[in-house]
Design goal:
2 copies of one chain form a homodimer. The first copy, chain A, has about 80 residues and is mainly α. Helices cover about 55% and strands about 10% of the residues of chain A. The first copy, chain A, contains 4 helices and 1 strand. The first copy, chain A, has helices at about 10-25, 30-35, 40-50, 55-65; one strand spanning about 65-75. In chain A, α2 crosses α3 (about 40-50) and α2 (about 30-35) packs across α4 (about 55-65). The longest helix of chain A has 14 residues, at about 10-25. Chain A is globular and about 40 Å long. The termini of chain A are far apart. Mean pLDDT of chain A is about 90; it is low at about 1-5. Chains A and B meet through α1, α4 and β1 of A and α1, α4 and β1 of B. β1 of chain A pairs antiparallel with β1 of chain B. Chain A binds a DNA duplex (30 and 30 nucleotides) through α3.
Chain lengths: ~80, ~80
DNA sequence: AGAATTAGTGCACTTTAATGCACTTTTTAT
DNA sequence: ATAAAAAGTGCATTAAAGTGCACTAATTCT
């Protein structure tokens, strides 16, 4: 099943972005999961793009990474 | 339980934004739910902020509304 | 090299999102 | 005013997310 809508990151891309950022900040999955309040198992799945994560999971993690999610107009 | 992380829209705010946009486009919940491929019951909950929706649910809906989600740096 | 740390995976269980249905309330149109 | 359409709500069921545990694979040390 595919979840990625046009113009929006797929869960795989989101996971990759999260992993890249985490490595940049030089923290482990374990640290990020604990600080964010998400299980290690879930974070692993999220980074691997093997999940269809909930809003809460996503926001918890990206917040730790110094990111936020913004709604933006798609210009055609 | 609260899901809203700092700097990111809470589910309530997200729901309100979706509803506002839907009304602007002058379509019903039923239409939006069918076009987006999400159940009417779920869309109602989403607009009311009574949900912790999944990535797929959110992207399906905002796509129809001509929106996308973007990761943005939080500057402190 | 070996040891220690970190990351990835399979599976079972628990929790909860997603849905359908029946119904009420509110809004809009005639 | 009343009929029709749209939106809101409660509840039970189903599907799937979230988790813990035990383990293996890969990295990163000394």
């Amino acid at each position: 099943m595919r979840f990625n809508a046009p113009h929006t990151k797929s869960v795989a891309e989101l996971g990759q972005a999260i992993k890249k950022r985490r490595l940049l900040l030089d923290i482990t999955q374990e640290d990020l999961s604990q600080i964010g309040g998400v299980s290690l198992r879930s974070l692993k799945a999220l980074e691997k793009g093997e999940a269809n994560p909930t809003w809460s999971q996503i926001t918890k993690i990206i917040q730790v990474l110094g990111w936020k999610l913004e709604l933006k107009e798609v210009q055609q």
